[in-house]
Amino acid sequence: MFSNDAYDWLLAESSCRAHDARLVEIESQEQYNYLVNSTLLIGADVDYWIGGRDDVTEGIWKWAFSNRNFSYIAWGPGEPNSYHHEHENCLVMADKYHWLWDDRRCSESHYFICERKYPESVIESIPLVPSIVG
């Protein structure tokens, strides 16, 4: 589900949870490709929050909802970099990198992508279908 509104990372996560979802956790190249293709179809040149953070231990990136280490990564050039030591602890798919990943300050406002939570037994059989979160 792609948002219509831009929020900081915590409000974005709260908005996802209010829709019985979470910020998307990208686990594979196929899922990443699907999301990039979806952003191209939407046609908005914006950044999207996704569910990664490193605020518990700097430099150790985890998915916030599942608390799992990344099994797949798609960092933009030179990322993550905590630019000018700005405590960039949250993760966006960045337009400037053609939706490769960039660490950002969690207080910034960005659009976001949610995914619905499904039991583990059905996750593999249900494709992530984007829709709009209002």
TrEMBL record:
Protein's UniProt keywords contain Nucleotidyltransferase: no
InterPro entries: C-type_lectin-like, C-type_lectin-like/link_sf, C-type_lectin/snaclec_domain, C-type_lectin_CS, CTDL_fold
Segments traversing the membrane: none
Ranges for domain C-type lectin: 1-115
Keyword list, A-Z: Disulfide bond, Lectin
One of the record's GO molecular function terms: carbohydrate binding
Classification via SUPFAM superfamilies: C-type lectin-like
Protein name: C-type lectin superfamily 17 member A
Species classification: Eukaryota, Metazoa, Spiralia, Lophotrochozoa, Mollusca
